[in-house]
Design a protein that fits this description.
single chain; eight-stranded mixed beta sheet; Rossmann fold; 2 domains; 11 helices; alpha/beta; binds D-aspartic acid; elongated; 14 strands; 357 residues
Length: 357
């Protein structure tokens, strides 16, 4: 017969063992901070079948975390609500705030990785900006959703679960800023949103995604060779704003109006999103050369979406003193030019940067 006092001792010993075991388990898990910015992943619709016409950026970060209790099995998760916006409203000031917060957190020993929940509309842009300004090898993973949290088969929860796994994965260290969408791992530099609404919208069409998620694990098969994070020459620590850079779109029958208006509005750089290999219509070229003469840096990009924008191909960049965008799409070329202009106005130096990052 076991005495009551011995029963109590055994009970306490069992509780102690369970507690120590739980603490040991928690101690083994990576510490991942989720920075929430809004978007569809935090969106709500009026019915479970509302997949368009919903309201983005309505759910807070703690609710997002509570909605995926499985997160606690793969990481010690904390959450911060940095903004609560639909990402079409993301601005340079948001990027500077976010980039500085990421760098502060990653400098802490108790943070192993960061997940940023974000609207899908400009997710690729925020990812590329951070790819150029984060000063750590620790994983930074952007994640969104194509369906609001209230929808049938909402993709947000599984995307968030995958993103937290990735942010805590040793394999993700040193890989640059990553995007986790649709069970796939993409590099910030080359991923794009390629569909307005389907869950498989995020693709790295020709240069290739980096890997997959399967069975609660991240699997890498590629990595980017362009410089990023700690290897870049950009530092936003002392910046309170970014130079104004805008995009002028090319199309049949285009005229000089937009380029002239951007320059008049104070643009320090203009990305020309040209047709084909960045061709310049005869009616636009004078506006671009006049802008260059005023010191505005002109980058030739392409609206096409894939391929190398050849320097001195469709225009004599050497003679015009223009910059070629390489494979960056216009919206990412804008980001690199903004950061380049915080360092230099030399087109030779800026062209080097476009071939480096
Ligand atoms: N408006 C979109 C955005 O916030 C919603 C989304 O797809 O996340 O980017």
């Amino acid at each position: 017969m076991i005495s009551p006092s011995r029963c109590i001792n055994l009970l306490f010993a069992s509780i102690l063992l369970l507690t120590l075991s739980a603490q040991a388990q928690t101690a083994k898990l990576p510490n991942v901070t989720i920075l929430a910015t809004g978007g569809t992943i935090a969106g709500t619709g009026s019915t479970s079948t509302t997949t368009v016409g919903y309201t983005a950026a309505t759910i807070g970060v703690q609710t997002l975390i509570r909605a995926v209790p499985e997160l606690a099995k793969v990481a010690n998760v904390t959450g911060e609500q940095v903004f609560q916006i639909a990402s079409e409203n993301m601005g340079n000031e948001h990027w500077l705030t976010l980039g500085k917060r990421v760098n502060v957190l990653l400098a802490q020993d108790n943070v192993d990785g960061i997940v940023i929940t974000h609207g899908t509309d400009t997710l690729e842009e925020t990812a590329y900006f951070l790819n150029l300004v984060v000063k750590s090898r620790k994983p930074v993973v952007l994640v969104g959703a194509m369906r609001p949290s209230t929808a049938l088969s909402a993709d947000g929860p599984i995307n968030l679960y995958n993103a937290v796994i990735l942010a805590g994965s040793p394999e993700a260290v040193g890989k640059g800023v990553l995007v986790a969408m649709g069970d796939q791992i993409h590099a910030a530099r080359d991923v794009s949103k390629t569909n307005t609404s389907t869950p498989d919208a995020f693709k790295t069409t020709e240069l290739g995604m980096l890997g997959y998620f399967q069975g609660n694990r991240a699997f890498f098969y590629h990595q980017t060779i362009r410089k990023h994070t700690l290897e870049t020459e950009f530092d936003i620590g002392a910046l309170t704003s970014l130079p104004q850079v805008d995009i002028a779109y090319g199309y049949a029958n285009v005229g000089p109006v937009v380029v002239n208006a951007l320059v008049a509005a104070g643009a320090k750089g203009v990305i020309h999103a040209g047709v084909g290999d960045g061709s310049l219509a005869a009616k636009v070229l004078p506006a671009l050369t006049a802008a260059r003469a005023k010191g505005v840096v002109i980058v030739r990009a392409s609206r096409v979406g894939q391929g190398i924008l050849a320097r001195n191909g469709e225009a004599n960049d050497d003679a015009l003193d223009f910059v070629a965008a390489d494979t960056l799409n216009p919206q990412k070329a804008r980001i690199l030019l903004m950061l380049a202009l915080t360092k230099t106005t030399s087109t030779r130096e800026i062209q080097r940067m476009f071939y480096t990052y």
